[in-house]
Amino acid sequence: MAKQTVAEQFVDILARAGVRRLYGVVGDSLNPVVDAVRRNAAIDWVHVRHEEAAAFAAGAEAQLTGKLAACAGSCGPGNLHLINGLYDAHRSMAPVLALASHIPSGEIGTGFFQETHPDRLFQECSHYCELVSTPQQMPRVLRTGIQNAIGRGGVGVIVLPGDVAGEPAAAPTGDHALVTTRPSVRPGDAEIDALARMVDEAGKVTLFCGAGTAGAHDEVMRFAERVKAPVGHALRGKEWIQYDNPYDVGMSGLLGYGAAYEATHECDLLILLGTDFPYTAFLPDDVKIAQVDVRPERLGRRSALDLAVWGDVRETLRCLTPKVQVKSGRKFLDKMLKKHADALEGVVKAYTRKVEKHTPIHPEYVASVLDEEAADDAVFTVDTGMNNVWAARYLTPNGRRRVIGSFTHGSMANALPQAIGAQFLDPDRQVVSMSGDGGFSMLMGDFLTLVQYGLPVKVVLFNNSSLGMVELEMMVGGLPSYGTANRNPDFAALATAAGAYGVRVEKPKQVRGALRDAFRHKGPALVDIVTDPNALSMPPKISADMVSGFALSAGKMVLDGGVGRMVQMARSNLRNIPRP
């Protein structure tokens, strides 16, 4: 039996770690690895059209499964293209292993053709980034990169020169146990007892939840019931905590709605659960704050804390709930539920009034119909920009749907490539890319990846022929919009020319039928919907401090923004308020 090459050893270890796909674009320095993939039945090569899409696809797969995913780029420009998607994966705590292949090892440091220094370039967007200089370093370096990606939640980068990849392995791969899941982290008894005392001493408690509440829905609900706490959430916490939640008071932040802002500011104790919510202007500075997070470096970096608790949310609440006294008074909770319902009632007219006659089409209306027509277990990938607003306010979570976006890194063009990773993971699950025309056109070439592999992704294109969020940013600064207009083609015609299903929608009454037809289509589909470029959005609370770093307009014309089926949820929750 012939001895393994380093490339074969590399692919074998990835497969043993559970990787089933390697996303990338082939290139000479990658050839030994790609050929090793060709000959390994346990792993497939996914040929995308841009390496950035490869990294986004791997990141989406990792976010959906919590397991390791992988991508690759050839030397120099090839692996440089990975960097944006890797930043997104790393900031989303998605375990991704990236192979950055390199120029011939003997040429490193000479200014050789396509030379870069990937072992330096990827340091900021990875937990581990190392150069393999000799076959003897394999497989330990790769295994270390994998353990960092999985164990710490984020990216591991292995830099491998093409000539080293083609050399014989120094030793057999061997059997080696790899960590493939993360442990639960329980806080110490002292911290649990201190938090219990704070809860008992507070008359009014509010919970504010982020992505760290994944898997802890029941624990959060039991704790909220015990202490009669309103429950608000950040955008990344929405899918995990809003459904089946009789204590829901909405979302805070620049995309926010409802009474979450009031609930976090009018309480005696605010408990931040698994959230690294970055917009400090929306957080109070005159109430007691406790924070629970599995990542200790995140404790207190947004707010001055009265108590920091290092642990995952589910284990913390399992320990905490039995220790706190049951609160009998619901006055604060009921007040916030009423404020929440009133706030939603006040804006619901924005997307219901004459929408079937309004052209260009209200994007709020499109999002609300999409929410109704999409499958109960759909995966939505959401472009950064105004689509974040429509997803935040209109997509209804139910515990089975997933919503993936560049919610922490804030990159354009993420939705389409993330949909590729989501669809490869489960070809039978409905995957919907909520794309903006700006984001879609930036990485439009990878629509061809859908066609090439027959991936049945449905691209719902909110086409307002502008960079809408940037126009908002300019408005904030008192500037006229400039450089934000897109001269777009008929995207549906392009989709048809590429071999996919395409339909263009210009009238509201066509929206529902077009979405249904696209969802029934067996292969990739694009619904190009011409939407109103003047449809902008405002958060419920505004101050000058909130403007920095995001789009926000002081114009009253954009204050109204609908909230979809959430108003029905709020009305339902009002039924829980005891009547005198």
UniProtKB/TrEMBL annotation:
<keyword id="KW-0670">Pyruvate</keyword>
<feature type="domain" description="Thiamine pyrophosphate enzyme central">
    <location>
        <begin position="192"/>
        <end position="320"/>
    </location>
</feature>
<dbReference type="InterPro" id="IPR000399">
    <property type="entry name" value="TPP-bd_CS"/>
</dbReference>
<dbReference type="GO" id="GO:0000287">
    <property type="term" value="F:magnesium ion binding"/>
</dbReference>
<dbReference type="InterPro" id="IPR047211">
    <property type="entry name" value="POXB-like"/>
</dbReference>
<dbReference type="Pfam" id="PF02775">
    <property type="entry name" value="TPP_enzyme_C"/>
</dbReference>
<feature type="domain" description="Thiamine pyrophosphate enzyme N-terminal TPP-binding">
    <location>
        <begin position="5"/>
        <end position="116"/>
    </location>
</feature>
<dbReference type="InterPro" id="IPR029061">
    <property type="entry name" value="THDP-binding"/>
</dbReference>
<dbReference type="GO" id="GO:0003824">
    <property type="term" value="F:catalytic activity"/>
</dbReference>
<dbReference type="InterPro" id="IPR012001">
    <property type="entry name" value="Thiamin_PyroP_enz_TPP-bd_dom"/>
</dbReference>
<keyword id="KW-0786">Thiamine pyrophosphate</keyword>
<feature type="domain" description="Thiamine pyrophosphate enzyme TPP-binding">
    <location>
        <begin position="383"/>
        <end position="529"/>
    </location>
</feature>
<dbReference type="InterPro" id="IPR029035">
    <property type="entry name" value="DHS-like_NAD/FAD-binding_dom"/>
</dbReference>
<dbReference type="GO" id="GO:0030976">
    <property type="term" value="F:thiamine pyrophosphate binding"/>
</dbReference>
<dbReference type="InterPro" id="IPR012000">
    <property type="entry name" value="Thiamin_PyroP_enz_cen_dom"/>
</dbReference>
<dbReference type="Pfam" id="PF00205">
    <property type="entry name" value="TPP_enzyme_M"/>
</dbReference>
<dbReference type="Pfam" id="PF02776">
    <property type="entry name" value="TPP_enzyme_N"/>
</dbReference>
<dbReference type="InterPro" id="IPR047210">
    <property type="entry name" value="TPP_PYR_POXB-like"/>
</dbReference>
<protein>
    <submittedName>
        <fullName>Pyruvate dehydrogenase</fullName>
    </submittedName>
</protein>
<dbReference type="InterPro" id="IPR011766">
    <property type="entry name" value="TPP_enzyme_TPP-bd"/>
</dbReference>
<dbReference type="InterPro" id="IPR047212">
    <property type="entry name" value="TPP_POXB-like"/>
</dbReference>
<comment type="similarity">
    <text>Belongs to the TPP enzyme family.</text>
</comment>
